[in-house]
Amino acid sequence: MKELRPDELPSLVDLESAAALVYRSMPPTPQYRWPLLEARVGTTVWVKHENHAPTGAFKVRGGLVYVDELCRNATKPAGVISATRGNHGQSVGFAARRFGIPAAVVVPTGNSVEKNAAMRALGVEVIEQGHDFQAAAEIADDIAADRGWHRFPSFHPLLVRGVGTYALELLREVPDLDTVYVPVGMGSGLCGMIAARDALGLDTRVVAVVSKGAPAFAHSFEQGRIISHEVTTHVADGMASRTPDAAALAIAKRGAERVVQVSDGEVESAMRALFADTHNTAEGGGAAAFAALLQEKDKMRGRKTAVVLSGGNVDSPLFSRILARV
């Protein structure tokens, strides 16, 4: 596989090439304005619907680009293994099945039942071990070495290139956005947005959104160095990272305006609002961007904004409980 600098951002040519590859497996996802949502916030809001992707989340784009490069420039691996809370794992499975490669993922103990089922439906071997994502990642490292399988990363320039295609779609459709809110787990979606913004030469402000129950990225951004922090969020599992990726942090420091932290309560309110106003299902991480906009709605009045609904893969019992709360 071609060596790339960890913090290397894709060019416009890179993003357009990745888009052509992605569109062999899925169409572009829509971006809509919803009148009820805009009335709630008091300003223009575009929603980028990555919950409409074939795995229900944006990460599938990165998996397709990464595995294509892996198979095109090296001997096809005996298998691939990664660590995930679910959406990345579905991306791994979707791409690996398309290229005929066995895939396994390690998920933390007690991981989302329905995300686990979705990965298994894609032919993925799901290994449930470790108390959080970082622990699962360490176990995946060991299994990769034992089996001689390719260790599929959670952050990589090729993943950024792939997921950056969603940002390219949004920013070409709405090039005069003032501010876009992007949820952050390991950071590929945020970096993809920064890459597309820069490649198109736009002035859109990019705001990173993290969970207050997983604040390591926010603390690291503020202090300019990697800081680990235990994870306590019970809703935003896709954002539940204990230690940021150094390359993602470096890109964010160069290209993101600020970081906003949202509580589990704010995320749940955003999930209810998105369902009531658009009838779209958002998982915790998928609703976090809108939660941040709601938190800052007074600051954003009169500005053209966008939020990335990055995924809709929430377990039915949890979503039912959240919708029932007032």
Produce the secondary structure layout.
Elements: H1 12-22, E1 31-33, H2 35-41, E2 44-49, H3 60-72, E3 80-83, H4 87-98, E4 103-107, H5 113-121, E5 125-128, H6 133-147, E6 150-151, H7 157-173, E7 179-183, H8 188-199, E8 205-211, H9 216-223, H10 246-255, E9 258-262, H11 264-278, H12 284-295, H13 297-300, E10 304-309, H14 316-324
Parallel strand pairs: 2-10, 3-4, 3-6, 4-5, 7-8, 7-10, 8-9
Antiparallel strand pairs: 1-2
Helix pairs in contact: 1-7, 3-4, 3-7, 4-5, 7-8, 8-10, 11-12
CATH class of the largest domain: Alpha Beta
Largest sheet, order of strands side by side?
1-2-10-7-8-9
Structural class: alpha/beta
CATH topology of the largest domain: Rossmann fold
Order of helices and strands: HEHEHEHEHEHEHEHEHHEHHHEH
Structure, briefly:
The protein has 326 residues and is of the alpha/beta class. It has helices at 12-22, 35-41, 60-72, 87-98, 113-121, 133-147, 157-173, 188-199, 216-223, 246-255, 264-278, 284-295, 297-300, 316-324, and strands spanning 31-33, 44-49, 80-83, 103-107, 125-128, 150-151, 179-183, 205-211, 258-262, 304-309.
Explained architecture:
- It is a single chain.
- This protein is α/β, with parallel strands linked by helices and 326 residues long.
- The protein has 2 domains: 12-58 and 157-324, Rossmann fold; 60-151, Rossmann fold (3-Layer(aba) Sandwich), CATH 3.40.50.
- It has 14 helices and 10 strands.
- The chain has helices at 12-22, 35-41, 60-72, 87-98, 113-121, 133-147, 157-173, 188-199, 216-223, 246-255, 264-278, 284-295, 297-300, 316-324; strands at residues 31-33, 44-49, 80-83, 103-107, 125-128, 150-151, 179-183, 205-211, 258-262, 304-309.
- The strands form 2 sheets. Strands 1-2-10-7-8-9 form a 6-stranded mixed beta sheet, with helices on both faces.
- Helix 3 (60-72) crosses helix 7.
- It is globular, with a radius of gyration of 18 Å.
- The mean pLDDT is 96.
